Amino acid sequence: MREDVVAVLTNDPAARSAIEVVLTTPGLHAIWLHRLAHGLWRRDRKLVARVLSHLCRFATGVEIHPGARVGRKVFIDHGMGVVVGETATIGDGCLIFKGVVLGGTSMERKIRHPQLGKNVVVGSNACILGHIEIGDGARIGSGSVVIRDVPADATVVGIPGRVVPPRDGPRAHVEGTLDHANLPDPVAETIRELALQNENLRLRMARLEDALNIHAPEAVEDGPEPSPV
Prior knowledge:
With 229 residues, this protein is an alpha/beta fold. The protein is 33% helix and 16% strand.
């Protein structure tokens, strides 16, 4: 519990003291209630666990199935609308913002939910669906829909989610935990690169025409159409 409080103080600049965190942080309350429900679930007290989970949802706005596995130092920030499925796993040190869904895509009774590694950051309203692996240190941008595995330390944005350049690459724009206001857009970057290439080709063609003394034909003014013979 001490680790959980420290995780809140570390990741939430609005948190001013430990006592304030303990009394006023719904995401922290959701984690603690889930740990109780998960313990009951593992002891085959499944109905009681589900009832406790339901009460947790009512009290905090966070819905975590008691069968889900949640690691240490996990922080759910502004957790209203967070949904975590039965077979999901959230690794140590993960940071989850409001509206995140870790959902399933199968009706089979098997592992059907996302498996998050350690220190993963999931932006607000992101959906991670199916039995997929999210590598350690990955970042999921706000509003993204992720349906494929994500490698470690990757940043994913968009619908469907696309991996953007590595954080240490020359085109990286994401620093710190997750700069939501400056997330790169891989589609927009591709369009800009194509436009730049097109402009470079146009300039090269113009220089070639000048060197060969080739000029485009002048436009002919519109006049009366010739009468048919």
